[in-house]
Design goal:
Elements (H helix, E strand, L loop, with lengths): L1 E5 L4 E7 L4 E9 L5 E9 L10 E2 L10 E4 L2 E8 L2 E8 L4 E6 L6 E8 L3 E8 L10 E7 L4 E7 L6 E9 L2 E8 L2 E8 L4 E8 L3 E8 L2 E8 L5 E7 L5 E7 L4 H7 L9 E6 L4 E8 L2 E9 L5 E8 L2 E14 L3 E14 L5 E8 L5 E4 L9 E9 L10 H4 L5 E8 L3
Antiparallel strand pairs: 1-2, 2-3, 3-4, 4-5, 6-7, 7-8, 8-9, 10-11, 11-12, 12-13, 14-15, 15-16, 16-17, 18-19, 19-20, 20-21, 22-23, 23-24, 25-26, 26-27, 27-28, 29-30, 30-31
Length: 410
Amino acid sequence: MNLAYSNKSQIINYVSKTSKQLHSRYILDSTQENQYKILIKNLKKDEIVDNENNVTFLSQDTRNKKIIVQEKAYYIFGNLNNSIHIIKFSLNHKFLWAKELKLNDIFRLNQVFDDKNGFLLQCTETYEDLDKRDNIVIVKIDNEGNIIWNTAIGTGEIYNILYQIHFGINKYTLISTAHNDIYITQLNAKGKKVLEKRIINRKIPYFFEKVDDNFVLYTIDTLNGWQHEQYFLDEDFNILKNISIADFSEDIQRKRDCRLSTLKNFTIQKDAVKKEFIIKKVKNNVTIWDYKIKKSSIDELYLIETSDKGCILQHIDYKEFENNHTTFVSKICSTSLIKLDATGTKEWEKKFKNGTGQYIIKVGSELTPNNYLFISEQYKRVHSINKFITKEYQDMGSGEEQIKLLHFQN
């Protein structure tokens, strides 16, 4: 292992020999604006590469939690050369280790789940034939990157997709689809499959949660005008009843996206006429203070967290692009992290442009700028604006995606 530090440029290089022909170099680089970039470079043997245009980017999908904080460290997961790599940093951004997971088959990492004393990785085998997909593979690792077990789920058919994992006591409940039929699979703590059941035909799962002793599953009916439905299931996942609903509530949408629209004693309202967000702190139905933010038609505002010292807001500004004069798609133009103090007065704001900072992780307890890490998505050489519409499009084409990790200094 070769670990080198350069205080002048604040660059950390880690070189790990993964094969006779290939080296991987992990780089933690900071710019003059204290924006840290996590990059992985492919190097052929004895080849020197200093141009960032030769970068293979760390992750394909930051929404799927490829960066996770656990205790006193954060972990970065990514695909590289048909294998899965993990990089571990301390909360003060000191490099700790990097590992390659040794799996028997060629896997692609799709999603990472935090599992207290380790992680669950959702993987699939990769094929040149795009019409062929094998079972979903769940890999359990500890927080030192050691593999505990791995289990394949699914029907072996085309289009096996995992949508969600519900973490129970000594069990995992997985909601997946094959050919748009919804399946429930349960694994015990050792990864052994104890249940696999098809519960609903020709629907897409949207969100799954446990309410008291029963489960609630929200679905979309793609064959019936994209109708929204709500299913109530018992502990054996038998359908108790289902009802049609007009649309998913904002709370359900925020739950699914792991974002909070309201927290105790705080509310966020939209004023379409004045084109502004109104954030209120209330107590016993009495408004203590309110704060207003100007918005465009497709802006989003999230209440990230609160304390007795105030609250943190995330404001995302979108811009619409016209695609082939028929379809409009949106892309992030800027995002802001806003701190309001206990009286509702803005204490500080950090704003970034060009899509940076859409996803946030917290690395400290205080509501200060240096305790938040921003994950950004930036596309290079995108040949089709369609890549922004769905994840399926994002995984196709010759465009490259750059993932940045941004860290604020006080």
